[in-house]
Specification:
2 domains; 7-stranded mixed sheet; 5-stranded antiparallel sheet; Immunoglobulin-like; 8 helices; 373 residues; globular; Aminopeptidase; alpha+beta
Length: 373
């Protein structure tokens, strides 16, 4: 029985280049496949079969040409034997090749850039949340592949809070965050927030990229977070239908949830540089970050992106566009593919469970601030 590699499933991405070995010792050379009609790639997710009793070295030989090769140093691959627990395993990056080893005590194992949140998992989340009291579900539109853009509304307050994530499908931690946020929003803990605000949630902005195993783009090879100035039905129907609903409701507070390849911490980015920037507007964004850092050990404000210079904000990005368009307190949340180094976990790193908990923490802080937004 030979070793077999397979990624022909929901969210899978890898290509077998060469398999060599004999007896117990094998080497498997692999390549990550580019997003369709795009040069972006970094997300991988595959299954290896026939592992029992074998020592296998997996080598992703095109890692050095990926979208963010500076993210590989210090990164550790996630591995699972049951598709439930995803543990970090020792990983090396040298000469543009990402390498990790596995000794098979069972026949099967799965390996991924981060714990996957597949479209089947998304369907289960949607079914579970839509059945809860006080929740309205709608299909705002469809993707280029014909998949639904699922939307939830909960609450009745005057303030309009929008939560949306997974514009970049390879950032799977974002939908675990959404799962935690939605469970909290449909619990008694959210009562005060939902009296003051109506909360709108799009848990997955990019179903096509998710199912196809993309890192950053939709079915047309388009980065959705560069479409918010002028979305179109041909390139970015996902953004088009969501922005139309935002125009209908207005936006008081917005959070766009992402993952970052390189920085080993959770952090936020704001809307510095928009044409209408005022210090009073920006102070609400900074207040959110400071409150969240005080509220959760899994958040910090020291590490993050450089701020845009005055007048230089990119209005094709959602956080900038919503702050400019609606005067919203608009926040990009970034979670790590590595770990939150100020509060590390040697076994799991940054994980699905911690992503869920951060979703709850973020909304607890929004609830504290909502009257002043």
């Amino acid at each position: 029985m030979t070793l077999q590699i397979n990624a022909a499933f929901d969210g899978g991405n890898i290509r077998l280049v060469e398999l060599r070995g004999e007896g117990d010792d094998w080497t498997c050379d692999l390549e990550i496949v580019r997003d369709h009609q795009s040069d972006f790639y970094q997300w991988f997710y595959f299954r290896a079969a026939g592992l029992r009793g074998r020592r296998v070295t997996f080598r992703i030989v095109n890692a050095g040409q990926s979208a963010y090769p500076f993210g590989w140093p210090g990164y550790r691959t996630r591995a699972s034997t049951d598709l439930a627990a995803w543990r970090m395993i020792d990983t090396r990056y040298d000469g543009g090749v990402l390498t990790f080893d596995w000794t098979g005590t069972g026949d099967l194992a799965w390996f991924a850039y981060f714990a996957p949140f597949t479209m089947e998992m998304h369907a289960q989340l949607v079914a579970r949340i839509a059945a809860r009291p006080g929740v309205t579900h709608r299909e705002l539109g469809q993707t280029l592949d014909g998949q639904a853009i699922d939307y939830f509304r909960v609450g009745s307050g005057a303030k309009q809070v929008w939560l949306y994530g997974r514009q970049h499908p390879g950032e799977s931690m974002t939908e675990f965050w959404m799962e935690g946020a939605l469970d909290w929003l449909t619990s008694d803990a959210a009562t005060s927030l939902l009296a003051a605000a109506t909360v709108h949630v799009v848990p997955n902005m990019n179903p096509d990229g998710t199912r196809r195993g993309h890192l950053r783009t939709n079915a047309a090879g388009v980065n959705l977070n560069r479409e918010w100035h002028a979305p179109s039905a041909e390139r970015s129907p996902e953004v088009l239908c969501v922005l139309r609903e935002m125009d209908r409701t207005g936006v008081t507070f917005a959070m766009d949830v992402h993952g970052d390849e390189a920085i080993p911490a959770n952090f936020i980015a704001g809307f510095e540089g928009i044409p209408s920037w005022t210090d009073a507007h920006g102070a609400k964004f900074y207040d959110f970050g400071q409150r969240l850092a005080a509220h959760s050990r899994d958040f910090q404000t020291e590490l993050g992106y450089e701020r845009s210079a005055p007048g230089k904000a990119n209005l094709s990005m959602s956080t900038n566009q919503l702050a400019e368009r609606f005067g919203a307190v608009s926040v990009t949340l970034e979670m790590p593919f590595k770990d939150h180094d100020p509060n590390p976990d040697a076994e799991f790193g940054w994980s699905p469970e911690r992503s869920r908990r951060l979703g709850v923490s973020c909304l607890e802080v929004v609830a504290e601030m909502i009257d002043g937004l």
